[in-house]
Amino acid sequence: MEVPVGAKIMEIHAQAGDEARILPKIGMKMKLADEAIALLPLTPTGLSGALLIRSSVVVGALREYFELLWERAIPVWAASKQVPLTPVQTQILGLLAQGASDENIARRVGLGVTTVRRHIGAIRDELGAETRFAAGVAAVRRGWLD
User: Fold this and answer.
1) pTM for this structure?
2) Is the dihedral of CA 125, 126, 128, 129 positive or negative?
3) HSE toward the beta carbon, residue 93, CA cutoff 13 A
4) What CATH class has 87-141?
5) Do residues 75 and 140 lie in contact, with contact meaning Cβ atoms separated by under 8 Å?
6) Which pLDDT belongs to residue 24?
7) Cβ–Cβ contacts within 10 Å for residue 13, how many?
8) Three-state SS letters, 31-52
9) Which of 37, 40, 57, 85 is deepest in the core (most CB within 10 A)?
């Protein structure tokens, strides 16, 4: 995303329906042709060439590695979006991430426990998370929490 050509390429692919994710320390992409062939770029943009790998063992290992990275990565456009939560929901989300109980959150933000639980439900809905923990993970991935 730091290279204008790369950002434009990602935008074109996103408009075509591809999903892209980023990790700040991993600046590359990989193309898998099948279970035994992969292309790895030699540079972040891939414009100066790529390494063709034809080993099913190596491709399998790369696939597993990239699947793990994919789960940790943030969707490209999510990182630049505004947090769609109210200020009190943002405060509650931060306290959730610290492991605070509903009762503790209610005391700290000056709301009733039932109201806090409604806000937590709204936060989880916004993040598409089934649990409090999943909400925290999703919020970090989207860049809503540090």
Assistant:
1) 0.49
2) negative
3) 28
4) mainly alpha
5) no
6) 63
7) 14
8) EECCCCCEEEECCCCCCCCEEE
9) 85
Over its length of 146 residues, how does the chain's per-residue pLDDT go in tens digits?
Answer: 566 787 788 778 777 878 777 766 666 677 777 788 888 888 877 778 888 999 999 999 988 988 888 777 777 765 555 678 899 999 999 999 888 999 999 999 999 999 999 999 999 988 888 888 888 888 877 778 86
Closest among 50, 48, 44 to 32, alpha carbons compared = 50
At 82, the amino acid letter reads: Q
C-alpha 133/C-alpha 99 separation (Å) is 9
Q: SS3 for 86-120, per residue?
A: CHHHHHHHHHHHCCCCHHHHHHHHCCCHHHHHHHH
Q: Residue 33 in 3-state DSSP?
A: coil
Closest to 136 measured CA to CA, from 112, 107, 100: 100
Relative orientation angle of helices 87-97 and 102-109, to the nearest 10 degrees: 140
Tokens 């959150």 belong to residue: 105
Domain residue spans of the chain? 4-80, 87-141
Task: Give dist(CA 120, CA 126) in Å, integer.
Answer: 10
